[in-house]
Amino acid sequence: MSHSKRPPRPAARKRANATARAKPAPEPGIRRIRLLLVDDHPVLREGLRSCFSRLPQLLIVGEAASGEDALRQARRLKPDVVLMDINMPGMNGLVATARMRKLAPGAKVLILSVHENREYVAEVARSGARGYILKDASPAELVRAIEAVHRGGGFFSPSVAAAMLKSLGGPTVAPAQPDLAWLTARERDVLALIATGASSKSIGGRLGVALSTVKTLRERLMRKLDLHTVAAVTHFAVAQGLTVSRAGSRSE
Question: Of 136, 206, 228, 231, whose CB neighbour count within 10 A is largest?
Fold first, then answer.
């Protein structure tokens, strides 16, 4: 007496399909952003991991719970972007960020914090971080920040940008206008676009100039202003309230 094989049960097929959909594959030719999560709260790291693991453009390569561990992981894993908390036991995020510039120069740091006061914002700019986003930001805003920093731009939460303005508004801070006066009109346009998080390629398309020209203008304005990091450039541009002129309306 022969026995026919039973067809797969519908429930089993559903589980298999769900598993296949759990981790979306990136589009062909798209390189995923290698991300290192640094925070001493496991619950927060778990939430970030759960959020990012569903996105095909992001790849979490590691996690760390302290500044010391972040440096070790960054050297070993070579992430593109490090999402870094400030307040952690032992070495804090600002010290780790400053040291990471030498130990893992390819990693771009995006600070994730609950603090938005002027003191913290100024310290972050000095540390060499590429951006500063608050922990109450939406997932969509957080992803935009990661992508902007990965492109080589900067990203600051609106309230953090406001704190930047206040930090330069006191009577003890020297006015920056004389420095701005050294820039050409085109350099000011590039400066304003850098502050929006635009990449060099995007800036070139917006202004109608070659990529090599954008890089030259960027290096020149940073040298004139004596600014050495994207975070510092963004800080300065926001403080000046720069806006971009119509592309093609100016020439050098």
Answer: 231
